[in-house]
Amino acid sequence: MRIDLEEIMEVARQTADKSPCKYKVSCVLCDKKGNIIATGYNHYGSRSGRLGKWTIHAEIDAISKGIRKPSNNLVAFIYRRHGRIIHPCDTCKALLKAYGISTIYHTNEKSWERL
After folding, report:
1. What is the rounded CA–CA span in Å between residue 115 and residue 104?
2. How many CB atoms lie within 10 A of CB 68?
3. pTM for this model (two decimals)
4. What are phi and psi of 6, to 5 degrees?
5. What's the number of domains the chain is made of?
6. CB of 21 within 8 A of CB of 44?
7. What is the CATH number of the domain that holds 20?
8. 1 has a pLDDT exceeding 60
């Protein structure tokens, strides 16, 4: 089985639309056969302080929902709705690497790039 980028893009769009944030970002984690393992989107944390609302990044949300131990067989697709292609922040990049996710694609609605 191959990874179906159109299917991943559609799942990424639907997941990003759940975000209450101004910049809607989603992360789709799948195995190298194309099976979707977990999805996540950026949203506000339950706590907020005097510095404002905390944002939970899409990558962290997806990992917390679907991965229990590191695996070298996973691929991450990071999607940003309406805007330029977004790269994972240093913290999310390190977390993805710690969980063995070395293949990362990032996209907007027009193109995919491998990181």
Report:
1. 5
2. 7
3. 0.88
4. -65, -40
5. 1
6. yes
7. 3.40.140.10
8. no
